[in-house]
Design brief:
This protein is mostly helical. 48% of the residues lie in helices and 0% in strands. The chain is built from 6 helices and no strands. Helix 3 packs across helix 6 and helix 5 (102-111) packs across helix 6.
């Protein structure tokens, strides 16, 4: 193996470690998926992250907030803060637009999602949700994310 190949291999491994750290390391008051399983004496259903709610929401996000509260909050928590042992926070960098585009929210609601970032089990499809519902809910989640530094 020549020096250039070794350097490329090392850069790849360091990059993979960096991406893993970026996705799963705790920042501020949030917990990473790995740290969540290590939490001791955390009440089942309690919020997983602290969410700063913007002073104002767009009209579409206001509609989405009502939809979120009726369709999503039972699992994803108030203001998308997640619920310990029940469902993940959507105000988390795992769900930033560059990793989970808006279409991912629509597909998740319509088809369900196989567990892959968290240990909450699979998400079932959301019965009766429309494309317009999900678009408004996504607008609400994105505004919460931006208010919490997730772009």
């Amino acid at each position: 193996m020549n020096t250039k190949s070794v350097a490329i291999a090392i850069a790849f491994v360091v990059g993979a470690i960096g991406v893993g750290w970026w996705l799963f390391a705790p920042v501020g008051s949030e917990q990473s998926p790995a740290a969540a399983s290590d939490a001791v004496a955390v009440a089942q259903g309690s919020p997983m992250v602290e969410v700063q709610v913007p002073e104002t929401l767009s009209g579409q996000a206001q509609i989405g907030q009502r939809g979120f509260e009726g369709l999503c909050a039972q699992c994803h928590g108030e203001n998308a803060a997640g619920r310990q042992g029940i469902g993940p926070p959507l105000v988390h960098r795992i769900y930033e637009p560059s990793h989970h585009a808006d279409a991912a929210f629509l597909l998740a609601a319509q088809n369900g999602v196989r567990a892959h970032h968290w240990d909450f089990g699979n998400m079932p499809p959301v019965e009766g949700v429309t494309r317009a519902d999900v678009m408004a809910i996504t607008a609400y989640v994105r505004e919460l994310q931006r208010a919490n530094g997730i772009n």
